[in-house]
Amino acid sequence: MALTLTHYLVLSFILFLVGIAGVLLRRNIIIVLMSLELIFNSVNISLAAFSYFLQNLNGTIFVVFSITIAAAEAAIGLAILVAVYRRRQTAYVDELDEMRG
Amino acid sequence: MEQFFFYMFAIAAVVSAVLVISVRNPVHSAFYLIVCFLQVAAIYILLRSPFLAAVQLFIYVGAIMVLFLFAVLVLDIGREQFRERFHGQTVPALAAIAGLFVVMGILVVSGKITAPLGPFDEPALMKNTEVIGKSLYTSYIFPFEIVSILLLIALIGAVVLVMSGQGKENKG
């Protein structure tokens, strides 16, 4: 029995859930950003798997763009983290409640 | 054989992902995340996409993770690691995750989301990088340029965000 699309989709789905759990459960904002990268990766796996199984390179090109966006997001997120940490001396999401969110 | 490698990489990826969100020290988290990214690069190789594997190694492992490690080291967040690491919304968060698990599990397992293995396009598989490059510079030239502008904006934005705090500290 060969590998099917479902194998890759289940892997991507499990990684996505682990990423969501990290975003929702952890307090440290840097772990939240790392979990966001996990979510990006899981979506990229499913895009690449569809691209391979449909024999269509558009999915691969979307993965390239998605990785670029992830790099921009990580740079901006870490810059915001550095600015917030300088001002508030904390890196816990539940203590950053100035906007009453 | 291919299946054996898939299961090896997939299990390693999931285990390291779980370790990322469960260990206490952010530096250890970053290293487990690097392990997870390496497994994902191997999965791209299994999907006959060596270009994506190389991009994954260069950008994620080479750039993004180094940025994360620098942030952890500069901010010295690890010092506060003995405080509680999960916050007070654990029960609703776990309920949301379980709901998502059930919905997506039903969709995937019932075979609603599936695709047949298409006819192999040998040139596209053999010259993966060449075909992607041609496609990026012809039919995807507009998004390509937009993404380059977006990267420039992110670069300037990151510098401005970090610089402004520094300037105020120096003046005050």
Summarize the biggest pleated sheet of chain A.
none
Query: Any idea what the radius of gyration of chain B is?
Result: 21 Å
Q: In terms of structural class, how would the helical and strand content of chain B be classed? A: mainly alpha
Total beta strand runs of chain A: 0
Notes on the protein architecture:
The complex is a heterodimer of chains A (101) and B (172). Chain A is an all-alpha fold. Chain A has a domain at 27-92: Helix Hairpins, CATH 1.10.287.3510. Chain A has three helices and no strands. Chain A has helices spanning 5-25, 29-53, 58-88. Chain A is elongated. Chain B folds into two domains: 1-77, Up-down Bundle (Four Helix Bundle (Hemerythrin (Met), subunit A)); 121-167. With 172 residues, chain B is an all-alpha fold. Chain B has helices at residues 2-22, 26-46, 50-75, 90-109, 122-126, 128-137, 141-171. At the A-B interface, helix 1, helix 2 and helix 3 of A face helix 1, helix 2, helix 3, helix 4 and helix 6 of B.
